[in-house]
Description:
Helices cover 41% and strands 23% of the residues. The chain is of the alpha/beta class. The protein has one domain (4-286): Ribokinase (UDP-N-acetylmuramoyl-L-alanine:D-glutamate ligase, 3-Layer(aba) Sandwich). A 9-stranded mixed β-sheet has the order 3-2-1-4-5-8-9-10-11, sandwiched between helices. Helix 1 (19-28) links the parallel strand 1 and strand 2. Helix 2 packs parallel to helix 3 (84-95) and helix 3 packs parallel to helix 4 (121-130). The longest helix is centred in the C-terminal third of the chain and has 19 residues, at 234-252. Residues 70-255 form the Pyridoxamine kinase/Phosphomethylpyrimidine kinase domain. InterPro entries: PM/HMP-P_kinase-1, PyrdxlKinase, Ribokinase-like. Keywords: ATP-binding, Kinase, Nucleotide-binding, Thiamine biosynthesis, Transferase.
Amino acid sequence: MxxxxxxxxxxxxxxxxxxxxxxxxxxxxxxxxCPLPTAILSSQTGYPHFTFLDFTSExxxxxxxxxxxxxxxxxxxxxxxxxxEQIDLVIEFISKNPDAFIVVDPVMxxxxxxxxxxxxxxxxxxxxxxxxxxxxxxNITEACLLTGxxxxxxxxxxxxxxxxxxxxxxxxxxxxxxxxxxxxxxxxITNFVYDKDANKKTFISKDYLxxxxxxxxxxxxxxxxxMITGGFDFEFAVNTAVDFVTxxxxxxxxxxxxxxDGVMFEYYLQDLTKLGAKVFERDKTLR
Length: 287
């Protein structure tokens, strides 16, 4: 059977983020992406104008219908959740899929600040969700929010980051990736990979390209989720995601493109499709 991911996030018609990137990326990796929208937007919220349709009232009907169809998922991957009610619905959905691998991207903030759409109460609720995860992918700001270090995100040593990852892992997830760590006076950008079960920890650094675009965190988490579901090694999946995002940012930065538009990731999907083909060939031999 083809592996399936239930991807829980918002859907924006314009602006390459959330489900708009998760669906093609996970599909390219040979895994079926089953979207569960939390909201539908004409354009992502970084634009000066957008429409917003809250899908909270339909989420339970949506997942209950999946249950009636006897659907099961190999992975449940959650991203931006706009309210405590949505977090509770995702927790309930996870409880009804006890065999799924759980990926939580705890979207709460960036650059040392919690997003303006959230109150401090959201941090406690996101922690409850992270406790259920097998893998979580916070950026450095979100990692600090999860561990009560919100004022320290740009002054941390590598030892501090290791301690933060272990503290997050102790909440529940055996695998933690902390992204977007600036080092060497912002000359490099680093991701820290921690795998408690394998007793492995790795820093992965790239030159900082001084370009920032919407949706790169969603791209990263979607690649890692899709590759783990497809049976790839965790560290290899993270390295693949880092390279993919770096290449897409570097190419996009050659053009006069708004950060709200996101990166031109479509030109690099062929790299993921090659990995998806390996999954197909492996699964074909198992049938």
